Amino acid sequence: MAQLTPMMQQYVDIKAQHQDAFLFFRLGDFYEMFFDDAIKAAQELEITLTGRGQGEERIPMCGVPYHSADQYMSRLVEKGYKVAICEQVEDPKVAKGVVKREVVKMLTPGTIMEGKMIREKENNYLASFTIFEDESMGIARCDLTTGEGAVTLIQGGQAELIQELSATGAKELVVSKEVNSELLQELERTLAVTISHEEEAELNGRYVHLVKELTQSKLVTTYARLLQYLIRTQKRSLDHLQKVEWYHAEEYMKLDLHSKRNLELVETLREKKKKGSLLSIVDHTVTAMGGRLIKRWIERPLLNESAIEKRHEAVTVFLEDYFAREELRDELRQVYDLERLAGRIAYGNVNARELIQLKKSLQKIPLIEEMVTKLDPSFQERWFHDQAPFEDLIDLLERSIVEDPPISIKDGGMIQEGFHGELDTYRDASVNGKKWIAELERRERQETGIKSLKVGFNKVFGYYLEVTRANRHLLEEGRYERKQTLTNSERFVTPELKEKEALILEAEEKMEQLEYDLFVMIREQVKEYVPHLQSLAHKISEIDVLLGFATVSEKQHYTKPILQPVGDVFIEGGRHPVVESVIPKGEYVANDVKLYPGREMLLITGPNMAGKSTYMRQLALLSVMGQIGCFVPADRAELPIFDQIFTRIGAADDLASGQSTFMVEMLETQYALAKATECSLILLDEIGRGTSTYDGMALAQAIIEYIHDEIGAKTLFSTHYHELTALADQLEHVQNVHVSAVEENGTVVFLHKVIDGQADRSYGIYVAQLAELPRMVTDRAEVLLRELEGQKQPLPNVIERSIQETQPPQLDEVKEPQRQLSLFGEEITAEERKAQQSKAKKLDPREQQVIKKISEADLLNLSPFEVMKLINDCQQQLK
Ligand code: ADP
Hints:
The protein is an alpha/beta fold. The protein has 30 helices and 27 strands. It folds into 6 domains: 6-107, DNA repair protein MutS, domain I (MutS, DNA mismatch repair protein, domain I, 3-Layer(aba) Sandwich), CATH 3.40.1170.10; 125-251, Nucleotidyltransferase, domain 5; 305-390 and 529-555, Orthogonal Bundle (MutS, DNA mismatch repair protein, Chain A, domain 3), CATH 1.10.1420; 421-522, MutS, DNA mismatch repair protein, Chain A, domain 3; 562-813, P-loop containing nucleotide triphosphate hydrolases (Rossmann fold, 3-Layer(aba) Sandwich); 843-878. The two termini are 71 Å apart. Bound molecules: adenosine-5'-diphosphate. The site of adenosine-5'-diphosphate (ADP) has 15 residues, from helix 20. The site of adenosine-5'-diphosphate has 15 residues, from helix 20. Belongs to the DNA mismatch repair MutS family. This protein is involved in the repair of mismatches in DNA. It is possible that it carries out the mismatch recognition step. This protein has a weak ATPase activity. This is DNA mismatch repair protein MutS.
């Protein structure tokens, strides 16, 4: 490469320090990007790629105007990139040589404060983890917009780490460069996070107060790395960071990433939308803070009985008085996002309009406190005992900021009259000066008799008196001082006018500067209240969430669950909260779930689409709802406090998402089997269907036996392998249930009712009819089915436990019956085959081909869909 110009050399040096970010390099009125940054940014932002320099040495370059750069930067950050903003930090006029430039701020997915990515009802977390020598792992998270920070220490391996990090929902992860790159790739893939590096993990002395309560040095180190990253990238006040909360992961129900996704707790599986998730049903919050809190609660259901009970108690109280509750919610609606306002105040980017929002919110608090306390006097102690007084703050804002200030804080017009003497003097000077000028115009018109005489203003000459050329002769000589001659008029000044002008201009300039200074002073005073505002925000959000629970509980007729740390499941008339909300009112069929000693595992059979998955998820969702403090959709519900919930779905069910393979299904199942305890809930939905029939069945049976014998967790297992229902006779705690369906005039009606006993058939063909497969396919399938049913049992029954105990079944043994299965019977003799073939000879060649195809098909190694396709092909051939 040829010699770089000094400026390009400066660029290259700064870029070397920020290799993982787009470097926006300020050049006059533009931010420019060069080399690979330019090529990539041009693609990502769809802007023109140009070049700097000549010929082969031309450097790729692209740029954006500085005044609209924000949107381009935000777009890159939304895509998961980082942006380093490099400004000129000395005045070009006084600079010797190349103007000095420095990176003044980094924008990253986990640290941005504004823009589309900051959703009202969601936290924007930055997380960090540190792996210590003894293999324990510290995890820290922080939301820069609210200042909230938390840290925990966990044991375990990669799966636990992913689980805990996924619970933070972080957009960006800060780690040491020493962390194994394979692990980072896995995290990037599963959690869709941006990875950033920070080697410094010493706590910066200025922030000691944040970690005072963290008694373990590992926790401090973990948080310090995250903090150091913030200090390095933000380069501005972090005074709003809140005291770091030390949470213990074991105090919350463990929900691994797959279970959380499968249960659609906060977003739907396929579309990743809130609508259709549990969150969308139970979130009736009216403040942004409440919206964020409920999401955190759903992601971390509680395990502590009394903490859960406390939430239930509040819901009970709020539920009792509809009118008081609604009035209270109306008041809460008028409370702005105190937490993020506090963040902006401390961060220094709050404007006067937001300070008015703060004032209005604070003015609501006394009434809210009164209303809450009136509902239950103990709530005074619960939420308001340490309430800081805000009268002085309200008073300050009332006196200082006008009711409807402009958004900009640079153009004046924000500060109340009477707040500051000097400002008032300037304002008077400006107003009086302008009045004086208006009076001058009136007087001079009268005295000179020139009606068109006027006073004007421009930036070059200031104020002047203007007389048209036609009227010039009416002006007595020497009355004014001539300043400028135009084609049709002349402009004059008088010493008095100049004097007033100086006063007015000075006043106006000073006014704007003084308003800005006063605003900054007020903001600094408000900043003192930041910790109190944050604490108030917590209380308000909690009240908001609980009021919302009461609202949905009343609307949807939920009941208070009875929770016991270790106990049985007795649900009467339970409903799936999301499904019941999307189907026509009154059509949901409520179901009981009973799990108790001797009946701890339910083997659920029934036609596809009958409601097996719904039934299983219903139990999990009721448990989550109960453990976050909400009431549950059931007539009566007694539930244990589950320590973990595992939800696994057979791979075939999840094919549409394009992610699941049989291997994933097995890995997930392995994780559940390794981690579940007898206090856990396991939902296994069609596990084993991702492989061939025998394999799948054998695995399913072995898994059921393992959970039964080794874990003892409450388990719901749905399967289309009817043969497995025989397990209920062999395993003490297994009970068959099925979702009922009836046949009416050749069509099947799903009753969605779950009852004891096994299903008698699988109704697959009826589902195919429902899906409007060609009539020929379903008719033919029915004929084939009848034939098959006429044959001997095509699959072996479950393998007797006694056999298994003495002699584990060999795969070959299980596969043995494969030979027996033939469409025309088991073990056909050569003679029989001949007879069949001669019979076939009477058929036309196409029919013969079809028969050949069917008789040679290795059904046991085909998936149901492949069988369907086979039949379809045959039918096409016969047409
Ligand atoms: P399966 O797992 O047996 O294939 P699903 O649980 O997916 O069936 O249920 C299929 C559909 O049936 C659901 O989307 C829902 O519309 C309806 N459904 C399920 N359970 C009920 C119920 N208890 N009451 C009313 N409709 C239900």
